[in-house]
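stage 2 :: seqdesign
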């Protein structure tokens, strides 16, 4: 098989481990703290998780651990969207169980959680693992978005685990996947199956974090990848001096990616969904903000710029959020009638009778191509596919119209030409940065120690991440500790609470302090490509978000 020079070189990279995990497995002691509580809804969650609620925080230190040498049989699942570093989580887990006892076995469930339900596996070997060390993607076993939620699925998962004589299952995923891990851990305990469940925090969106999970893996690499591209576009814009680039970035439920990329590249405008929601800004007000910056730059002779837009922005704008919610309900309830309505124009007419007057007016005001995107097939959960709504093009069109009015009034004398971009999949499978390679390997190795120590219902944790890797603190966090109850599909369900951008937090405050200057002046930064070789201050650099959060 042909491989690139970089891929070949990355195979040889040895990820750094925290000092507590770099010892012989038998010298890694487990230390347990006080019992924990969930972030909210303690009574309800205690009742739902009778066997796994309230477990203590776990940390690793130096001491004797006679459990790490036993033979283990473990299965691992990659769940949800890809994130750089997933292969290293598996490599760390594999190396850990083999160092504990060479006779241990690691199975990979193919295609995500469905692999556990349907008993589709791959048995890992040195040859397989070595071909994927420090590489991006989830192609080693593939991923999937199947949720294990029906009684039949839980029973099938247990049957598979028993057939393989598993001691534990490791689920590598985001907040939804790890909510599923918590439910699976509780089910196995209720069935007295003796099968442990451990999670690992994955998502480039950066919305799975708290005091003990300082970052979800993949975020570091993704934002560095996007920031390189944004920096390149900023330099091109400053060279050509004739385009406004509107760049949509992944991040449906939170704006961590957009905010971090803004801190790394200093665009003229960066919209933060959480701020839009907090201030209840309308689409018109957002357009006016952009037009003000465009006009002020034009007064200086700068008819170019860069605008960053979070993927989920439309769901945070009040009138758009209401429209989406009504459309989701109508299209779920009256799917047959909607399909039978016929052409796009007839569907709009039909919806006009079903929607509230305000939402009907918003839908009719949208450009045809954007309105069509609001009516596309829903995702498996019945929600609009926000990533397919070209918010960047919507804003370009509305800004053009508004500037034309201002020009006619004589208050705008510049030239505006907008170009749209969407940076999403480009960042999900990049070669992991040294930070993500180290962090993910540590998460996987830590998952092994949690399993060997007999714990279940935990998320592998590595913190103190702004320090050198040797000083990182490894351990585990009870999954129930991060949970609350939320309304989902008509009923309250336990879920891990998403971490949104905090408007009083260090990262947003740093952005807020500088954005008025960036809006008018050309202050672009050019981060360049991810560096894998060289001084630690360049190659092991973590995100500005993490640094600013640790300064609080």
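stage 2 :: out
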């Amino acid at each position: 098989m042909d491989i690139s020079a970089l891929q070949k070189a990355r195979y040889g990279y040895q990820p750094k481990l925290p000092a507590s995990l770099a010892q012989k497995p038998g010298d890694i002691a487990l230390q347990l703290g006080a019992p924990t509580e969930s972030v909210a809804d303690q009574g309800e969650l205690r009742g739902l998780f009778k066997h796994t609620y309230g477990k203590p925080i776990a940390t690793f230190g130096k001491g004797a651990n006679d459990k790490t040498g036993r033979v283990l049989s473990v299965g691992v699942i990659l769940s949800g969207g890809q994130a750089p570093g997933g292969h290293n989580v598996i490599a760390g887990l594999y190396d850990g169980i083999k160092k504990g006892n060479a006779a241990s076995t690691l199975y990979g469930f193919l295609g995500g959680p469905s692999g556990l339900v349907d008993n589709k596996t791959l048995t890992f070997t040195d040859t397989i693992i070595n071909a994927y060390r420090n590489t991006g993607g989830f192609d080693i076993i593939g991923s999937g978005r199947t949720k294990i939620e029906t009684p039949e699925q839980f029973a099938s998962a247990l049957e598979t685990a028993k057939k393989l004589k598993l001691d534990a299952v490791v689920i590598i995923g985001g907040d939804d996947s790890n909510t599923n891990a918590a439910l699976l851990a509780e089910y196995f305990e209720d069935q007295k199956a003796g099968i442990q469940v451990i999670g690992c925090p994955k998502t480039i969106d950066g919305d799975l974090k708290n005091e003990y999970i300082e970052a979800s893996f993949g975020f570091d690499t993704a934002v560095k990848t996007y920031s390189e591209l944004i920096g390149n576009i900023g330099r091109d814009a400053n060279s050509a001096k004739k385009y406004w680039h509107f760049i949509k970035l992944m991040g449906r439920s939170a704006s961590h990616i957009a905010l971090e990329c803004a801190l790394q590249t200093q665009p003229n405008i960066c919209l933060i969904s959480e701020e839009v929601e907090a201030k209840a800004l309308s689409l018109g007000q957002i357009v006016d903000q952009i037009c003000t910056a465009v006009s002020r730059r034009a007064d200086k002779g700068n008819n170019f710029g860069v605008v960053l837009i979070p993927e989920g922005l439309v769901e945070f704008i009040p009138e758009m959020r209401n429209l989406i919610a009504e459309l989701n309900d109508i299209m779920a309830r009256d799917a047959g009638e909607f399909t039978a309505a016929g052409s796009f124009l007839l569907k709009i007419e039909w919806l006009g009778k079903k929607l509230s007057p305000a939402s009907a007016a918003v839908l009719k005001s949208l450009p045809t191509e954007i309105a069509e995107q609001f009516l596309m097939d829903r995702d498996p959960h019945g929600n609009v596919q926000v990533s397919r709504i070209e918010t960047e093009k919507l804003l370009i069109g509305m800004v053009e119209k508004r500037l034309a009015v201002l020009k006619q009034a004589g208050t705008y004398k510049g030239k505006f030409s907008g170009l749209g971009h969407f940076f999403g999949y480009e960042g999900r499978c990049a070669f992991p940065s040294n930070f993500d390679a180290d962090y993910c390997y540590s998460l996987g190795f830590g998952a092994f120690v949690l399993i060997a120590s007999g714990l279940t219902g935990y998320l592998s944790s590595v913190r103190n991440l702004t320090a050198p890797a040797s000083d990182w603190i490894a351990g585990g966090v009870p999954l129930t500790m991060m949970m609350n109850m939320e309304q989902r599909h008509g009923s309250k369900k336990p879920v891990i609470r998403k971490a949104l951008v905090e408007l009083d937090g260090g990262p947003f405050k740093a952005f807020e302090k500088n954005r008025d200057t960036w809006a008018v002046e050309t202050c672009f930064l050019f981060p360049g490509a991810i560096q894998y070789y060289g001084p630690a201050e360049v190659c092991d650099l973590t995100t500005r978000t993490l640094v600013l959060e640790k300064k609080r």
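stage 3 :: structure notes
- The CA atoms of residues 42 and 535 lie 47 Å apart.
- The first helix runs from residue 5 to 11.
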